[in-house]
Amino acid sequence: MNWLAQLPTKRGPWLLFSAIVLLLEATALFFQYNMGLAPCIMCIYQRTAVLGLLIAALIGATNPKHKGVRLLAYSGWGLSSIWGLLIAREHIDMQTTTDPFAYSCEFEPNFPTFMPLHEWLPSFFAATGDCGNIDWQFVGLSMPAWMEIIFAVVTGALFIVVMSRLLINRSL
After folding, report:
1. What's residue 100's pLDDT?
2. Is position 170 annotated as part of the catalytic site?
3. Quick one: pLDDT at residue 52?
4. Distance between CA atoms of 154 and 137, rounded to whole angstroms?
5. For residues 94 and 104, is the Cβ–Cβ distance under 8 A?
6. Cα 117 to chain center, whole Å?
7. Were 125 and a residue from 65, 117, 136, 154 both cysteine, which residue would form a disulfide, CB within 3.0 to 4.6 Å?
8. Which of the following is catalytic: 70, 89, 131, 170?
9. CA–CA dist 52, 74 (Å, integer)
10. Is 40 a catalytic residue?
11. Does 70 qualify as catalytic in the annotation?
């Protein structure tokens, strides 16, 4: 348990986390551009949450021994993973509802006006698909179902890391 508690104070685990999250982003782009799966608005929001995880991991890698840096990284990690989990859950509801009027899928992301990511980088943030379509499945689960699992695992990992730090070191 002490080994686990020491991981966040080392650069390697943060860089590994960055690499894993970067691989998720690359996979999303592969699905979009090589497999022709158009991302919907919920996919774009989940992609943005994964990008938030990447930023949090890179922040943690900058100076993992500094408590303030770790707290900022934990905060970004928590916000991004929980937000992604909630978005994935809502996306699953959109795909599985029998009421066609229960959900509406917007055509343009609702990013803040000071940061219109879909205008700055449309190849990454533009939504061109329909939220209700299930265009891809693996082992009977749709992409948002897999993203729900991924976000749950990432959220659980944060919980385990923070709890081990608090229980062993009595400090984050």
Report:
1. 67
2. no
3. 97
4. 21
5. no
6. 16
7. 117
8. 131
9. 11
10. yes
11. no
